[in-house]
Amino acid sequence: MSFAQRHLKRIYSFIYKTLVIAELEARKLRHDPTELFTRAVQPALWLLVFGQVFTRVRAIPTGNIPYIDFMTPGILAQSVLFIAIFYGIAIIWERDLGVVHKFLVSPTPRAALVLGKALSAGLRGLAQGFIIIVLALILRVHLNFNILALFGVAVAVILGSALFSTFSLIVACIVKTRERFMGIGQVLTMPLFFASNAIYPISIMPSWLKVVSHLNPLTYEVDILRRLMLLGGTSSYGVGVDLLVLILATGILVVIGAVMYPKVVV
After folding, report:
1. Which residues of 91-129 are buried (b: 16+ CB within 10 A; e: fewer)?
2. In the Cβ-directed half-sphere of 141, how many Cα atoms lie within 13 Å?
């Protein structure tokens, strides 16, 4: 067997094992689909209450689109964030049940374990995205149903879910207890959300918050969703830059997560 064939075989094996882990994690969702609907309550309230009230406020500069349209991609990104950021608690449960030990003694690469879990979080994000799009249609948000745009939205949701779920896994490997993890998760979600362009444009932020927003990966997820989801949607950075930031950030966190994953049992 040539070097190229061995290399391709390793790549195929890595992809296969990653998809097996993703399918294993997604199977949990099939057994308990009510989780999706309970987690959809909060974004629904944001759209139905906050969005309906603030769409009547003329002071927020959203350009030529209504405020409810402006905030819908932000609420989708928020939903993805809120689901993914608490994903790491499952790692602590698996450690306590001995599941992590079984994964670690298997021949599956650590990166495949982490990436597989990240992809399963992406499936949950897509399910949330479908619910939010249905709500947006009810609220008469001007959505873009171009096939390429919808595909781009799906990619952005999967990348955002993978990014924040992997970050969550890293936090779980550090804190190691459910109580501390839940406390840190609750501390992180709101700063990430409010220090982004999800519910107001960056232009009205104070200077220090603009700097934080530019460093916040959620900002780039909202930016690409706003460009692709809405008819006449605009992007502050460009779809290419948004995708590049999300891919690079996810890749870096997967590598760090692969290194940290065995330490969850220490």
Report:
1. bbebbeeeebeebeeeebebbbbbbbbbbbbbbbbebbb
2. 28
Q: Give this prediction's pTM.
A: 0.87
One pLDDT digit (tens) per residue for the chain, 266 residues: 666 667 677 777 777 778 777 777 777 666 666 666 666 777 778 888 877 777 776 667 777 788 888 999 999 999 888 888 877 777 777 777 777 777 777 777 788 888 888 888 888 888 888 888 988 998 889 999 999 999 999 999 999 999 999 998 888 888 877 778 888 887 888 889 989 998 888 988 999 999 999 999 999 999 999 999 998 888 889 999 999 999 999 999 999 988 887 766 65
Domain boundaries defined on the chain: 3-265
**Token digits for 97?**
């049940």
How distant is the alpha carbon of residue 213 from its chain centre?
17
| Length, in residues, of the chain | 266
